[in-house]
Amino acid sequence: MIGREEQAPHEQLTALQEEVEQLRRGLVSHAVVDQAIGVVVTVGRLRPEQGWAALKHVSQHTNIKLREVARCLVEWPARGWLPEVIRRALPAAVEHARTGADADGREDEREVRCGRPG
What we know:
Number of domains: 1
Distance between the termini: 48 Å
Structural class: mainly alpha
Protein name: ANTAR domain-containing protein
Number of strands: 0
Pfam families: ANTAR (PF03861)
Region (Disordered): 96-118
Domain ANTAR: 13-74
């Protein structure tokens, strides 16, 4: 792999722009996850670490990426609607987090839309 100092200036600029974009996406994703933890903490009357555990549990047991579960949970209060698969998994995840049980692994990740069904 060629180091940045050995790349042409335009290649360096492109690489840096891609890195900045990845960092921006990561920052936004992290903020949404933090907000979703707040939603779970409020709804489930949990401590923040339990909210994080519940969020991970929903992701793992629905095969939906964590950032997508988080996005749906953050949008839930404004929309008044939550995808059925997440809605069904949330009570078990809250109880799981409350009791401190160990989480299972996850299988393939599923794509989900937070909008109302058409």
